[in-house]
């Protein structure tokens, strides 16, 4: 007897279920912190939908807690989320025939986790399609948004020491940095960024120092990477050799 095939929405729900459950504790914590930062239920829901990224929302809380300007907050979130340009480019091979309207809709609800699920499904399941991929995004976003909203409600009735916010956010970003640390260049760039941030914050007395430190450290890391690649290329390109007949052999 043939096995009954699942409907697209049910198949997408099964794929997104681990993400939905994993978002609950983090979303509750994020919602509570947003409430302490002055967000109500409506603003929390709007932020969770428009900026579907836990790291970005925690960053918003951190920037608000130090009374950063609106422009500084937007720029810091922008630099934090630049990785989505790379993630989106790797998925673009599966959306070559899609309209721009669908790509924009899909991109708005994509984050690190549902990107990984969809990339795996597209790579291994020949029947995976745009509808299932979009549903995975929406199911995960609904779970995150619901969790942050409930966390905001809890935050209004549960007392949370605001001093813990700085500790928790600092620990989270240190953890995020360590998870991405896979070579010496990243370590140098990260340490340089932290050192410059301290200096610029003391000089400017403003969160603009964080943005300037991020830009300069990233630029230095980029220059070091370019210099290293150029050196490797020159090393591989040795002198021309001659064959046994005396003819010159050139490297291609």
Characterise this structure.
The protein has 252 residues and is an all-alpha fold. Helix content is 74%, strand content 2%. The chain is built from eleven helices and two strands, in the order αααααααααααββ. The chain has helices spanning 8-36, 41-50, 54-65, 70-80, 83-91, 100-108, 112-124, 130-155, 163-179, 184-204, 208-236; strands at 241-242, 248-249. The chain has a two-stranded antiparallel ribbon. A hairpin with a 5-residue loop joins β1 (241-242) and β2. α2 runs antiparallel to α8 and α4 (70-80) packs parallel to α11 (208-236). It is flat, with a radius of gyration of 23 Å. The model is unreliable at 241-246 and 248-252 (pLDDT under 50).
Gist?
This protein is mostly helical and 252 residues long.
Within the largest sheet, what's the order of strands? 1-2
Q: Care to count the β-strands? A: 2
Q: What is the distance, rounded to the nearest whole angstrom, between the alpha carbons of the first and last residues?
A: 60 Å
- Distinct helical segment count: 11
Which oligomerization state do the chains in this entry correspond to? single chain
Strand content: under 5%
Mind describing the biggest β-sheet? 2 strands, antiparallel
- The assigned structural class equals mainly alpha
Radius of gyration: 23 Å
Uncertain segments are 241-246, 248-252
Order of helices and strands: HHHHHHHHHHHEE
| Structural shape | flat
Secondary structure: helix percent = over 70%
| Mean pLDDT across every amino acid position | 80
How are the secondary structure elements laid out?
Elements: H1 8-36, H2 41-50, H3 54-65, H4 70-80, H5 83-91, H6 100-108, H7 112-124, H8 130-155, H9 163-179, H10 184-204, H11 208-236, E1 241-242, E2 248-249
Antiparallel strand pairs: 1-2
């Amino acid at each position: 007897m043939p096995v009954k095939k699942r409907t697209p929405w049910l198949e997408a729900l099964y794929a997104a279920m681990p993400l939905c459950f994993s978002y609950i504790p983090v979303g509750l914590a994020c919602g509570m912190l947003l409430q302490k930062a002055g967000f109500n239920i409506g603003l929390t829901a709007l932020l969770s939908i428009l900026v579907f990224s836990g790291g970005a929302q925690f960053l918003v809380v951190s920037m608000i807690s130090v009374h950063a300007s609106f422009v500084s907050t937007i720029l810091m979130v922008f630099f934090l989320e630049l990785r989505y340009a790379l993630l989106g480019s790797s998925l673009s091979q599966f959306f070559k025939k899609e309209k721009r309207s669908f790509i924009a809709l899909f991109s708005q609800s994509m984050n690190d986790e549902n990107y990984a699920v969809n990339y795996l499904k597209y790579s291994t399941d020949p029947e995976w399609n745009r509808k299932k991929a979009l549903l995975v995004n929406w199911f995960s976003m609904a779970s995150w948004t619901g969790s942050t909203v409930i966390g905001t409600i809890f935050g209004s009735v549960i007392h949370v020491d605001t001093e813990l916010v700085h500790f928790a956010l600092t620990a989270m970003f240190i953890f995020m940095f360590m998870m991405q640390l896979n070579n010496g260049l990243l370590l140098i760039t990260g340490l340089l960024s932290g050192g410059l941030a301290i200096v610029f914050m003391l000089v400017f007395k403003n969160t603009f120092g964080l943005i300037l430190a991020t830009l300069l450290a990233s630029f230095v890391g980029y220059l070091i990477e370019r210099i290293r690649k150029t050196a490797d290329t020159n090393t591989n390109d040795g002198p021309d050799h001659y064959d046994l007949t005396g003819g010159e052999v050139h490297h291609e």
